[in-house]
Write a structure and sequence with these properties.
The chain is mainly α. It folds into 2 domains: 137 residues, no CATH class; 114 residues, no CATH class. Helices cover 56% and strands 5% of the residues. It contains 14 helices and 4 strands. Strands 1-2 form a two-stranded parallel sheet. α1 crosses α3 and α1 packs antiparallel against α6. Bound molecules: zinc ion. The site of zinc ion has 8 residues, from α13.
Length: 262
């Protein structure tokens, strides 16, 4: 029996041809084009999911998701069903509004080679080892390409989709972030570790709102701290997060006092 990878390889040019001529396929039609019985729609959906994993790996909008549809021409309702509705809509919209080019298709093909031997169920967890799935989703949704590191800040809130899509995130003062990073001078303001060196020579730190904006935290120097990714995740998810919050407030107040006296 053909593997998902082999089927995906055969299906990619078929889907690409449809997408580039502005047409859709149904899972049944795609099954027939692969020489499978019509009732193989479910298998085809899995092959499409593997192709979408390849697209995600290639950082291209999801080709199969919006090109291969259910019999009543809808996006597969099971696809991305576990994701916040706003994020799911944004992922679908971005893919629908994208004009797929030949270079997109070859990028997906190349990414598929990297997923050789993976089923769709194994491919996504593998992708998560390369980029946390929350960040991947924001990227697929078209958020956080320019503001990529900033998007991480929303991952721990109760309603990341809402804070992301109401535009509040964009209201945050970029000057505050820049000034906080300047105050940190490359070191995590919580643990003091030097951030790793980025390709542009700067030190990597993430800005974190100590009191979340969603909880009416202010977008001010005294509520924003530049920290390492490890501390950032602990601040959001750790069992010590309340204690960390109190410590961060103290550290930031001290840092602000030093900054004022400089
Ligand atoms: Zn740290």
């Amino acid at each position: 029996m053909a593997t998902q990878y082999e089927e995906a390889k055969r299906l990619l040019p078929i889907i690409a041809a449809a997408a580039m001529s502005g047409q859709h396929l149904t899972y049944q039609i795609a099954a027939q084009k692969l020489g499978r019985p019509k009732n193989n729609a479910r298998t085809v959906a899995q092959v499409c999911d593997l192709l979408d994993a390849a697209a995600a790996l290639a950082d291209v909008p999801l080709l199969a998701l919006t090109t291969v549809l259910t019999a009543n021409l809808r996006v597969n309702p099971d696809a991305w069903a576990e994701v916040e509705p706003e994020i799911r809509s944004a992922i679908i919209n971005r893919s629908q509004n994208h004009t797929f080019t030949k270079s997109d298709i070859s990028a997906i093909g190349a990414a598929l080679e990297r997923l050789k031997g993976y089923s769709n169920r194994k491919a996504w967890p593998y992708l998560s080892t390369l980029m946390p799935s929350g960040e991947r989703r924001l990227r697929l949704a078209g958020v956080g390409t320019a503001a990529y590191t900033d998007a991480i800040d929303d991952l721990g809130t109760d309603s990341p989709a809402v804070t992301t899509f109401t535009g509040k995130r964009y209201a945050r003062d970029a000057m505050v972030r820049d000034a906080v990073k300047e105050r940190a001078d490359g070191r995590c303001e919580y643990c003091g570790e030097l951030g790793f060196k980025c390709s542009n020579g700067s030190r990597y730190l993430e800005c974190h709102h100590i009191i979340a904006l969603a909880d009416q935290g202010a977008d001010m120097m005294t509520n924003v701290i530049a920290i390492c990714p490890q501390d950032h995740r602990e601040a959001h998810f750790g069992e010590r997060r309340e204690q960390i919050e109190a410590e961060m407030i103290a550290k930031v107040n001290a840092a602000e006092a030093r900054r004022m006296n400089r």
